[in-house]
Write a structure and sequence with these properties.
Oligomer: single chain
Structural class: mainly alpha
Distance between the termini: 32 Å
Strand content: under 5%
Radius of gyration: 12 Å
Shape: globular
Largest sheet: none
Helix content: over 70%
Amino acid sequence: MENAGVGWIAAIIIGGIAGWLAEKVMSSSMSLLMNILLGIVGAIVANWVLGLLNIQPLAGWLGYLITGFIGACILIAIGRVIRR
């Protein structure tokens, strides 16, 4: 997160937006706290996946938002598979 140039407060705000966007796209229903957690943890997961694929992670606010969105969608999909 520090590499992306995003502080903790900004990470919470951007994580919330990324989680909310993922919730809307994936037709899920979650609380604000869960959206924030999904966005932040999703960014970590997506950065890890991008690292495995040898793709340079995106930097800055917009990069963190995109990465968080992608990771949150991955986490929602994994959660759905586990629940079934």
